[in-house]
């Protein structure tokens, strides 16, 4: 049985994180997380909640503990100010992409469709 990839396009909700945690704990587990459209905002370290830990920090903790491959669509991320170190240096800004995630593109998404069962979390 193929593992799962979650496509995450919702801006600020813990549903995707809760689903990722649950799937990771089962067989065959997670192959990849792919954040796109407004979903990349979940990885933005400049977003602060009114209470509790920031969602980006919760994702960083999950990614560190799980070792899951997590990608933010580069086009969606740049449009929303979510920058990795390389993009931040190029633009003269500071990085805002949470630890454990990286920027990616359609090639990695196509790979996910080939090697896993893809679930879109809206």
Give a structural overview.
- By secondary structure, this protein is α/β, with parallel strands linked by helices.
- It has a single domain (4-121), classed as DsrEFH-like (Hypothetical Protein Ychn, Chain: A, 3-Layer(aba) Sandwich), CATH 3.40.1260.10.
- The protein is 37% helix and 20% strand.
- It is built from five helices and five strands.
- The protein has helices spanning 15-24, 55-66, 74-79, 85-91, 106-115; strands at 4-8, 30-35, 69-73, 101-104, 117-121.
- A five-stranded parallel sheet has the order 4-3-2-1-5, sandwiched between helices.
- The radius of gyration is 14 Å and the shape is globular.
- It starts with a strand and ends with a strand.
- The relative contact order is 0.25.
- The model has no long low-confidence stretch (mean pLDDT 95).
Itemize the secondary structure elements and their pairings.
Elements: E1 4-8, H1 15-24, E2 30-35, H2 55-66, E3 69-73, H3 74-79, H4 85-91, E4 101-104, H5 106-115, E5 117-121
Parallel strand pairs: 1-2, 1-5, 2-3, 3-4
């Amino acid at each position: 049985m193929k593992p799962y990839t979650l496509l995450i396009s919702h801006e600020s909700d813990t549903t995707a994180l809760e689903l990722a945690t649950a799937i990771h704990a089962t067989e065959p587990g997670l192959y990849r997380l792919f954040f796109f459209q407004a979903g990349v905002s979940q990885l933005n370290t400049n977003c602060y909640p009114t209470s509790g830990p920031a969602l980006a920090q919760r994702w960083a903790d999950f990614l560190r503990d799980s070792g899951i491959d997590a990608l933010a669509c580069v086009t969606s991320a740049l449009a929303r100010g979510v920058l990795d170190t390389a993009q931040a240096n190029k633009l003269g800004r500071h990085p805002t992409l949470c630890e454990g995630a990286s920027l990616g593109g359609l090639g990695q998404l196509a790979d996910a469709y080939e090697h896993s069962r893809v679930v879109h979390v809206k």
